[in-house]
Amino acid sequence: MGRITLDKVQKAFGEVEVIPPLDLTIEDGEFVVFVGPSGCGKSTLLRLIAGLEDVTGGQIRIDGNDATSVPPAKRGLAMVFQSYALYPHMSVRKNIAFPLRMAKMEQAEQDRRVQAAADVLNLSDYIDRRPGQLSGGQRQRVAIGRAIVREPSAFLFDEPLSNLDAALRHGMRLEISELHKRLDTTMIYVTHDQVEAMTMADKIVVLQAGVIEQVGSPLELYKTPRNLFVAGFIGSPKMNFFDGAEAAKHDAHTIGIRPEHLTVSTTEGMWKGTVGVAEHLGSDTFMHIHPEANPSETITVRVGGEFSATHGDTVFLTPASDNIHRFDADGMRMG
Amino acid sequence: MARAVTTQRKALNTTLAWIIGLLIFFPILWTILTSFKTEAEAIANPPVFLFFDWTLENYAVVQERSNYMRFLWNSVIIAGGSTILGVLIAVPAAWSMAFVPSRRTKDILLWMLSTKMLPAVGVLYPIYLLCIQLGVLDNRLALVVILMLINLPIIVWMLYTYFREIPGEILEAARMDGAGLKEEILYVLTPMAIPGIASTLLLNFILAWNEAFWTLNLTSVDAAPLTAFIASYSSPEGLFFAKLSAASTMAIAPILILGWFSQKQLVRGLTFGAVK
Fold it and tell me: Percent helix, strand, coil in chain A (nearest 5)?
């Protein structure tokens, strides 16, 4: 079981309020991702749940029990750190067995569980090495192994992949997702990478300055962002925003159109512009276009496949009318 | 051309280092040499350097007159005891300062270090009286405690700098893994800090071994360590240089040997934090 409830949870460091009172419920077995720009309080929130920081106010409940002042060791949660935080003086085997040793588990059972975790994570060949002799990906696996052996009620991940290179990151992302499917245990995952958030999460919590901007499934956030911040944060490349006359045509203060919801033509369209930079990826073409009406601005367009355009070409853009997001003067979604 | 300059400079540096090293080492060398001379040769003018009749007579006399082993044993107990006791107290202290610092931590560290700036003689009288009152004058245990207190600021400070190098996340990981405070310090922090703790132990053992002010003032017979052993051979008239040298050589030999075998650790201990 791993249902975690935050009730008016609040955190201040001295005078500085990092997290104003906040409510959130994480259901058992859910994969929840906290995402937001750096300094938005997502890691602090995770550390509050872990018990590594004390809350300034409010209550944290784990499976219905008040855990607000329970020390981290007794919360039944496991955490994977960004820096892996392995014990450098212990072998892989001892690292993984450490939580079991702390729980005073029988040696035979310890060995069985460590072996099982090592098999699952492909660590059997390195089991007697020290962390210093392992690569980044292997170290991260050891950290995950150390977390799974104790069968926690929830896993906490604090930007676990940000120290890995791109290829490894993709592989580990899949491994963690698969692990979640297999264990069916609650996982809370902190990242600033919205691609990680979109691909892994059942539920995304978008945070800014300690405030929850929106909670929802990846597609909910993509299709119906609640405000300008979420609209701009979720989706890559970023959504294009238009103020003024264009927005007024749609009875809004600001309208937003995602790069993939603009069609490009060399002959006709709603807006005329010149190509600034065109990025040809083969599978996609990203173009940064300066509209004729306002050349200092840039509109990003994504076209599937190859589109031949170079710097200085004149193109026409047409937004897909079903996919125009409208926002009011406060930046909140309309309709 | 540039290479030639660097080679020259290297040679110059090496020569300078040797000169300085020999200058520092010379008194020790002279003491050792003198301990093998006769009393007459020891005060000969001009002094004789290497060409004299080497004799072990002084050692025999010193050994006959006083019980070297008893002084040695006292030194080992006082220096070892105060160091071990000090580290046992300093590990939790340094842990709290390094990993759960408060707004006052820096001030406390400075204040602790500032006690080392106090001239020891300033507190001799009160401590001497205290020892009399408690009936622990010339008592090894009392010296263990006093020397521990004297060196404690340095031990805490050294361990603090070592602990600061250990990433806090590893200790947090231990906490998440179910380790209580005791397990965290015992199974995670201490093993990771072993090199630091070792050089701290070593340096403080040497400091306590060489400590003369308190050992001379607070002991007479029972608890007297090697410092008192040397002092007992110094006469106000400056006589019996050779015997004094023999006693000194015997007193410093153990610590010289210890230092020789642990040079690496010592240098690390002395320069730690200075160069990163």
Answer: 30, 35, 35
